[in-house]
Structure formats: C-alpha cells, structure tokens
Amino acid sequence: MLALVALASNSILCRLALAEEEIDAASFTVIRMLSGVAALAFLLFLSGRKSNVNSASTSEHSATGSWHAAFMLLLYAIAFSYAYVSLDTGVGALILFGSVQITIICVGLISGQKLHVLEWFGVGLAFAGFTYLVLPGAAAPSILGLFLMSTAGIAWGFYTLAGKKSKNPFRDTTFNFFRTVPVVIALALYAVTQADISLRGVILAMLSGAIASGLGYTLWYTVLAWLTAIQAGVLQLLIPVIAAVGGIIFANEILTLRFVLSSVMILTGILIVIFGKYSVTCLHRKNLK
Description:
Blueprint: H1 2-19, H2 25-54, H3 67-86, H4 89-110, H5 117-134, H6 143-163, H7 169-179, H8 181-192, H9 199-223, H10 229-235, H11 238-250, H12 257-288
C-alpha cells in the first residue's frame, strides 16, 4: 500500500505542478529525476557505511540495475510529463494504466502464462471499474497526448516487469536512476532555453523525485517479488482510486456515488485476480476428492 500511495502521489504532484502551470514539463522532469538521484545516492552512501560495519556479503552489492530498466524509467518520466500538458487528468490516467495493464498481460501471455476464467473475469471487472471512474465527462484526448501517455504506460509496464528479476530493489532502483543522468542533463540544457519555473513547481518536482519516485519505486520493486506479472498490473489500477481519495482529502473534492461504485468494482476485481488461481486449484482438488 505504501508503494501504491507513492505511485499515486506522483500523479497528484505532477497534476498540481503542470495543470496549474507552476513549471514546464521539461523542467519538472529534470528536477524530478535529479532529486531522485540525489536522494538515492545519499541513502546508498548511508547503507554503504552500515554494510561496512556489518560486513555484508558481496552478493548483496552485486545489484546495479540495468540499461534496459533505466531506459524504460526515463522514457516513462519524460512521456508522462509532456502528456499531461495536453491531456485531461482522467483520460490521461485511463490511457496510462490501461497501457500498463495491456502491456503486462500481453507479455505474460506471450511468455506462456495462462489465466483461468475467474482471473479473466477479475481483470475485466477491475478494468471496467477503472474505466467507469475516469472516463465519464472527460474531454477527448489529443493525438499527441494519446501517443505520449500510451508510450509512458508501455514503458512503465516493462519497467515493472524488469523489477520482477530484482534481487536488491534498493540498489537496482538507485543505479537505474544513476543511468538516466546523462540524458537528464541533456534535457536540462534544452529546458534552460524555455524554462518557466516557480518555487512551488520546484518543490512539487523535488517531492515527486526524491520521495514518490526514488523511495516509492524502491518499495514497488520490493513487493514485486511476491506478485505475478498479472497481479502487479491489476494492482496498479488501485492508483487512480488512491489519487481520488487524495483529492477528496487535500483538494476538498466531493465523494460521489460513481467513485464508491468504481472503487468497489476495482477492489473486487483485484481480489479475484490475486486469489483466482488459488480458488480454482482448491475447487479442483475438492472435486477430485
């Protein structure tokens, strides 16, 4: 839940910064990524001192992320920021997490992973609830915004899949961020020529990078070890629900019947997917007996 809250916080912080024009998309991305790098580097330094005292094993220090994961992380961050310049927040969220879900399911099916009928029903119910939450009343997306947010969703889907192989989530996340620095610096040089920055925008970007991204992604990589790829994809459909709760608490948004019904659909669908295989297996064994 902490990981999902962190991921939802990224959407909230990005919306607050870009929708209210507190900062431009390029500058937000640069500050977000560099803040994540700084926070993770500091924590890596502290963990290194602690491991020297405790004489940690060499295997614990072998994780260094990958260029593939770093590329997907950077592609997601850039496309995500620029997409929200032209997209309504609800439509953007639908495109993003719909793309994540489709990417993970397709990769899982291609790799031979099979879903039981009950799991398919859970996926459908969760996605229907998510669609019901964000689609009604939203403006039609622009072609560019649709392309950028779809790209961000596909990239985040592959970044999530890369995390399934992580043996040391903290170090992998840290070095994935480190690998993005050269491109982030190049983007910073580009952003300087058209920067439109306020102090509030900088603070929002720093919070997004250091806490919601750096620490949040470490938590997400940690919990992925206990989830199947399909479960990880469906769980991320909770993020819009959490973001909506944050809007109700911090932005005085109204709790609607649509929100309540869609939340029930999403949560029920997630539970069905997570426990689907277990239930089907138990029923099969019971019938055999």
